[in-house]
Amino acid sequence: MYVLFDVLHLYYLPQYLPVQKKLADQGVTTAFVFYHSTHDHIMEQIASENGLQYIWVENDKEAASYYQQQKADWVFFANSFAYLDDLHQVSKSAQIGHGIGPKSCYYTASDTAMTVRFVEGAYRCERLRSLYPESTFIDVGFSKLDPLFSDEEPGFDMAQLGLDPNKPTLTYAPTFYPSSIECFDKNWPADFNDFNILLKPHYFSIAKEKYHRQKALLEHWASFDNVYLAKETDYNLVPFMASSDILISDASSALFEFAALNKPVIWCDFLKLRWSYRGLFSYRFKKRMDEDFGEYANIAVHAKTYKELRNLVIEQYQQPQLLAPIRAQLAEKLAGRLDGKASERVVAYLMNNAKFIIDPQYENLR
């Protein structure tokens, strides 16, 4: 069997790598398709560290041409792909989500049908089936979290990061939009000097010129002695989750992934919204969020302003059991089975469904 992984963005890798490792254990040949960007050297370093085979493409059209040549059994995607009809003449496609947050795009990503989409939990699986009854959805869990539940991820050595191993550790993991970054106090790490602070922003916050103000703030915060700012090679949230006692975030998938570990999270309700999302246009923000947004909000305590943040962090750190039952309930709804075996279930499906026949006119896949 031959499996390819389409890596349009670096942050797709944490979902792919646990699956790739399980495939390699089974002797399956795999390769990654990277898209050229300003961060090619980062991708090459990560590929080298993980022993990955890879090739480079300029865009999705070039990727599609490569897939036509390779005729792999399966090609993985983390989002939609414009050339699925061409791909399906020679290969099957598999979609695996790159986040479990409250954004509505989680569901619209299935507008174009892959051969199969691997889904996190029975609730989301059934909801997707009701929206797209002609498509195939398989409940496997969330592969990104497998290393945490199988004890394969030890986390960071705080001393090596220049932090104090005797302090509790919090991670601040905001998304790029809508984000809380611009609403934090300029010197907020000083207000939390009794904590180690790990800053793990979304990749776009440090990689895209559009968000240069966010990057400037992050780099300023990194100058504090109790702060470590993720490097470009720290693409994976998993080591941060393994190392942290508590997490601060906003409408980010990170918040739900951390809660799935049954650790406390603080949800920042204070966000920097573009003018086109405010006032009369606030419906656009609501449209961007999933219809279950309100229920998911119960998984965390909410800071309505920055001034509330310190007291909530202390409360949740000292009493992590306060929302534990709710976290456990919603984590299953968001992430499915949390047993470290999501990747195994993905690989089992791939291997059981790898062989297919193509008729001479490429009209039907069976």
From TrEMBL:
Going by the UniProt record, its keywords in alphabetical order are: Transferase
**Alphabetical list of Gene3D superfamilies matching this protein:** 3.40.50.12580
Q: Does the keyword Transferase apply?
A: yes
Give yes or no: UniProt keyword NADP: no
Q: What is this protein called?
A: CDP-glycerol--poly(Glycerophosphate) glycerophosphotransferase
Q: Which residues form the signal peptide?
A: none
GO MF term list? CDP-glycerol glycerophosphotransferase activity
Query: GO CC terms on record?
Result: membrane
| Pfam families with a match to the protein in the record | Glyphos_transf (PF04464)
Q: Which InterPro entries match?
A: Glycerophosphate_synth, TagF_C, Teichoic_Acid_Biosynth
